[in-house]
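Researcher: Let's walk through a ligand-bound prediction step by step. First, I give you the protein sequence. Second, the SMILES string for 2-acetamido-2-deoxy-beta-D-glucopyranose. Third, you return the three-dimensional complex as structure tokens. Ready?
Model: Ready.
Researcher: Here are steps one and two:
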Amino acid sequence: MPRRGALPVGTLLVLLQLALVPSPLAGCLLDPCLEVTPNTTFRCTGLNISGVPDGVPNTTLNLDLSFSNLKSLGSNYFASVPELELLDLSRCHLHTIEDDSFMDLHRLSTLILTANSLQHLGKRAFYGLTSLKKLVLVETNRTSLSELPIGHLHTLQELNLGHNSITSLKLPGYFANMTSLRLLSFISNKITSISRGDLDALREGNRLNLTLVLSLNNIKSIEPGAFAGIPLAELALRSAFENFMMQTCLRGLAGLQVSRLILGEFHDKETLQDFERGILSALCQVQMDEFVLMCSSGVEDDTENLFNCTGNISTVRLVDLGLSEIPEVPVWPKVKQLECKKCDFEAVPAEKLSLFKELRVLRITQNSGLTSFEQEFEGLSNLEVVDLSENRLTFSKCCSPKFQNCPKLKHLNLSFNSEIRLTGDFTNVKNLLYLDLQHTTLVGPGSYPVFLSLQRLIYLDISHTKTEVKSQCTFCGLNSLRVLKMAGNSFGDNKLANNFKNLSHLHILDISSCKLEHVDQSTFDALSELKELNISNNKLLTFSPAVYQPLQALRVLDFSRNQLTVLLGSAREILPDSLVLLDISQNLFDCSCVYLDFLKWVRENQELLQNQELMLCHTPSYVANVSLPSFDLSSCHISTTKVASSVVVLFCVVVFLLLIYKYYFQLYYSLVLLSGCKHSAERGDTYDAFVIHSSKDQEWVTKELVEPLEGGAPPFQLCLYYRDFLPGVPIVTNIIQEGFLSSRNVIAVISTDFLESKWCSFEFDIAQSWQLVEGKTGIIMIVLEDVDKALLRQRLGLSRYLRRNTYLEWKDKEINKHIFWRQLTGVLLKGKNWNHEEVKLM
Ligand SMILES: *[C@@H]1O[C@H](CO)[C@@H](O)[C@H](O)[C@H]1NC(C)=O
Ligand SMILES: *[C@@H]1O[C@H](CO)[C@@H](O)[C@H](O)[C@H]1NC(C)=O
Ligand SMILES: *[C@@H]1O[C@H](CO)[C@@H](O)[C@H](O)[C@H]1NC(C)=O
Ligand SMILES: *[C@@H]1O[C@H](CO)[C@@H](O)[C@H](O)[C@H]1NC(C)=O
Ligand SMILES: *[C@@H]1O[C@H](CO)[C@@H](O)[C@H](O)[C@H]1NC(C)=O
Ligand SMILES: *[C@@H]1O[C@H](CO)[C@@H](O)[C@H](O)[C@H]1NC(C)=O
Ligand SMILES: *[C@@H]1O[C@H](CO)[C@@H](O)[C@H](O)[C@H]1NC(C)=O
Ligand SMILES: *[C@@H]1O[C@H](CO)[C@@H](O)[C@H](O)[C@H]1NC(C)=O
Ligand SMILES: *[C@@H]1O[C@H](CO)[C@@H](O)[C@H](O)[C@H]1NC(C)=O
Ligand SMILES: *[C@@H]1O[C@H](CO)[C@@H](O)[C@H](O)[C@H]1NC(C)=O
Ligand SMILES: *[C@@H]1O[C@H](CO)[C@@H](O)[C@H](O)[C@H]1NC(C)=O
Ligand SMILES: *[C@@H]1O[C@H](CO)[C@@H](O)[C@H](O)[C@H]1NC(C)=O
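Model: Step three, the predicted complex:
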């Protein structure tokens, strides 16, 4: 049984092939690397390997080998991936990096060696890294900088030595050559003292923007002058000092020039300390622009002196302090920007803050206990920005009385508060450009035109403010407005009715989530400059072309999450050419084939349409949840061809039936004819001729034809329908069986009546076709007088010229009759079978 044996053998061969030959499939299944971006980014983590995995091509730019068990790197370890730009070797159990390990990586810009306890680092370990910008040596068991062989990495911009055991900040001389260095981090090391000369390497050269991070160390002493003449962009000293040593240490900062100094603690550290009195006065010797103090619980005791040395500081940020009042303000403070974030204020300290005459920007945010705003700002002639967002403020008389003589105020942020009552009085702040009141319950807007005097305002955000727009003049006066955000509110009767009539400079309008059910025709008439309209998440059923027609500058239209069933052709036509983003997702689309043109349009405009994965059919139910862009358009095409072909078939059937109805007799005749063909040979020639004639000519037939022929010598036997047809047999059967099949000849008596009678024509047609089929019977045409010759020619056609046929004309004259009879009997005699009696008679 060869067939049964063949199958297992074949299978076995295939299995053997799979097992032994390294087929591409097998390679694919075993590939340990994830190709994040084709040919360039590979992630091969957690492998127990040595060397670069085989699957990584030489085009790779980014290679992540973290969590692999590499143990040690030998020379030219990465020769197979010379294009690398980023190499991540975090937690690779590396203890040894031999000389020239990275020799081939001339393009490498980032090298991450986090969490490898490096014990043997060759002197030439980092040779070849001529483009290195970022070196991360976090958690690598480093104890000093001097043994770190990085002196030749002149291109370095970031060096992160965090979470090591470095005890001294003595920077080796080679730092003088790292002129690109921007970030030097010693976060969480074991530095205990900083001496003069430690940072000398930074003194040389023309570096300006270096950020030095010394947070989370245990500094006990800073020798005065250690930082003198060192220009730094930022110095971070959070949780950097041992308890009670802060003040002394800060004194050591004398002479430091820094753009930003960050002091304070980290929340999660236990080193929180009580600030000694006047601790910050030490900072008077530091030249800085910005002072940041974070998360220092002890600062409460020192509040009165907090600003003592802020004389020349332009920016003060106080973050997460337990500060309940503004400390004493020095004379002529130069602070231009003041921020108090997560402090403990209960009321807006406007009076005291008004002493900062230079103040430009004021931010008091995220104070969870800040509820009251009773005091007034007074005479802050430079004040431009006031941000009181994310507090719990509840107040009325907004906003003019709160800002006396603050003529430059342009930016007011009162968002995310509790409740604000707007009076409509903005006279003191009529130069406002930005007003943000979002997510704060508002009393006033919607009922009367509160914004009337804000003629210069360009940005207004009143979204989610429980505003109900009842007055058509709610936005009156906002003649310069560019941006109006009022999502999450409502409109009277849930409809837009000419609410934006004078906002002709509006560029962005957000009226999403406003429960809208209807948009009046003239609503958008003034908005010819509008670029973005967000009307999503409403209950709109239609996108009426007339309403949106005026928006000819529109670039972004968000009509998602409404109840639209289709975007009709007329609506699609008015969409301006400038439109680059259209979102109609999450509507209730009707995917019937009636809207085939819409479905096609969706398919063709995928670049324009956003969130396509959320454009789903809603009806009809058999396509519910089918994605619109992937809707099978051909399903509609097929049914149209179906419809077309069934129409054609139906038409054919109808035509066929009509033909049958019309030619019923002919068909019937043909059937009988065919059966007749079989029998014709068996039938004798009972008659000499079958006479077809019009019933109106019966008298002529009887008198002029039957009597002379049947009574003459020799006698001829004629078949006459009125005499010889069998009763009870269908007339057509009679015509054929008794007439044609039993006669040798056909005599057609052609008169005007004959030509007009359908029956006669029919019989004549049958006679003609019969003649063709049988090939023997001749037709004798007897044309009576007074027949229209033209009609005659048309009806008889060619038949009269056929040789087998006889064409006789009947004239009622003796001489003509004589010729007529001679011709007729001559024809009838041809092929006549004489029986005995007839012969005797002759
Ligand atoms: C990846 O590399 C292969 C072979 O070098 C090449 O055929 C293919 O086009 C590349 N793919 C991309 C996305 O560059
Ligand atoms: C890693 O591979 C080595 C042999 O190459 C083997 O001795 C070791 O057990 C493997 N380790 C793990 C975790 O699989
Ligand atoms: C990468 O490898 C291909 C062959 O696999 C070789 O033709 C090409 O030169 C190599 N490119 C580099 C930069 O080495
Ligand atoms: C750190 O390095 C020292 C030698 O410099 C070594 O004794 C110690 O075990 C290393 N620590 C770790 C965690 O490997
Ligand atoms: C700085 O670089 C120059 C030229 O590369 C070199 O001659 C000099 O020794 C380097 N200085 C230090 C302190 O490494
Ligand atoms: C320092 O940084 C600031 C912003 O980070 C930048 O504008 C300035 O140009 C930098 N200065 C130098 C000398 O690189
Ligand atoms: C801070 O300044 C005020 C006057 O502005 C002065 O009375 C006070 O002594 C100063 N505090 C310290 C610690 O210098
Ligand atoms: C403020 O700067 C001026 C010169 O710009 C200087 O004379 C004065 O000592 C500085 N004051 C403080 C407190 O740093
Ligand atoms: C107002 O403050 C909120 C919260 O801090 C912020 O999200 C919003 O962008 C601010 N508004 C403006 C106009 O800056
Ligand atoms: C409409 O705005 C124009 C300026 O854009 C202004 O002149 C006109 O007074 C405004 N009309 C109303 C009724 O506010
Ligand atoms: C329209 O507003 C909704 C929220 O109401 C937001 O999710 C959506 O991103 C906005 N659309 C655009 C285009 O910004
Ligand atoms: C369509 O999807 C929604 C949400 O996923 C689901 O509730 C609903 O039953 C789905 N309808 C059909 C017909 O699958």
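Researcher: And what stands out?
Model: Residues 1-30, 838-842 have pLDDT under 50 and may be disordered. The longest helix spans residues 634-662.
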